[in-house]
Amino acid sequence: MGNPKLITKPVHTPLCENQKLEKETYKWFVANEKCPADFFGKQQLNPILNLSTIPTLKKIKEKECKEFLEKQKKGRKRGRKHKLK
């Protein structure tokens, strides 16, 4: 990682909000794939251009994202029922 004196923040796997370090580390990756940008999904690391800092990722708002996706899913189901009638 280079000079440890330059590390000013904890270095760990990406996290969802309220997720404990090193627990269910896959959660962020699944949420990042499914969640829209409003909930900090669809993130990717920026290229490392400056060796004095490393890029960071935001914590995904997993709970809000799940609620949003459930509402979306229910809306699609209702829409299908109306189309069939």
Architecture overview:
The chain has 85 residues and is mainly α. It has one domain. Helix content is 38%, strand content 0%. The protein has two helices and no strands. The chain is elongated. The model has no long low-confidence stretch (mean pLDDT 80).
Short description, anyone?
38% of the residues lie in helices and 0% in strands. By secondary structure, it is mainly alpha-helical.
Q: How many strands, which pairing sense, and closed or not: the largest β-sheet?
A: none
Report the mean per-residue pLDDT as an integer: 80
Low-pLDDT residue spans: none
Global outline: elongated
How far apart are the first and last residues' alpha carbons, in Å?
Answer: 61 Å
Class inferred from helices and paired strands: mainly alpha
Number of structurally distinct domains:
1
What is the helix fraction of residues, given as a range? Answer: 25-40%
Number of helices: 2
Count of strand segments: 0
**What's the Cα radius of gyration?**
18 Å
Give the amount of beta strand, in percent.
under 5%
Give the SSE string. HH
Keywords:
about 80 residues, single chain, mainly alpha
Secondary structure layout:
Layout: H1 26-34, H2 62-84
